[in-house]
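Re: [ENG-882] Designed sequences occasionally contain unexpected residues at chain ends

Forwarding the minimal case from QA. Structure tokens:
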């Protein structure tokens, strides 16, 4: 292959890359705008707020899953069936045999600590409730 062919291939490669950028950058910008609008729409905020509010669960902690601790949220195993992520500052206080529950129509989750005869109450819907009501009041 001679130098003219190599130069021509480089030119074509540059042109292809430039054209791809002209196509993909507007698509990326459009997607970011759509996602931002959707995440701040009243219907989306209401759906997320109600989804968390209507959840209900309860069970005993059967494992603290210490081998998978990383970040701010740490996993626990409930009734050997399902996993729940909890904030690290709560995880540090939990022991196997403690319980947790959340009632439907409530924004709060309760951790019952057997060893200390204590209960930790956490507002699990604070973020979505705040965004939803700010959106409603902004009308």
């Amino acid at each position: 292959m001679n130098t003219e062919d190599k130069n021509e291939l480089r030119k074509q490669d540059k042109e292809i890359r430039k054209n791809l950028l002209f196509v993909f950058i507007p698509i990326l910008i459009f997607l970011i705008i759509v996602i931002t609008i959707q995440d701040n729409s009243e219907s989306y905020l209401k759906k997320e707020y109600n989804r968390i509010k209507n959840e209900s669960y309860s069970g005993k902690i059967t494992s603290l899953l210490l081998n998978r601790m990383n970040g701010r949220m740490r996993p626990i195993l409930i009734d050997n069936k399902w996993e729940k992520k909890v904030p690290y500052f709560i995880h540090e206080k939990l022991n196997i045999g403690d319980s947790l529950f959340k009632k439907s129509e409530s924004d709060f989750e309760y951790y019952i600590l057997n060893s200390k005869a204590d209960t930790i109450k956490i507002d699990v819907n604070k973020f979505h409730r705040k965004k939803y009501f700010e959106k409603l009041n902004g009308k």
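QA comment: On inspection the terminal residues look reasonable. Helices lie at 3-39, 42-54, 88-91, 126-137. Proposing we downgrade this to a documentation issue.
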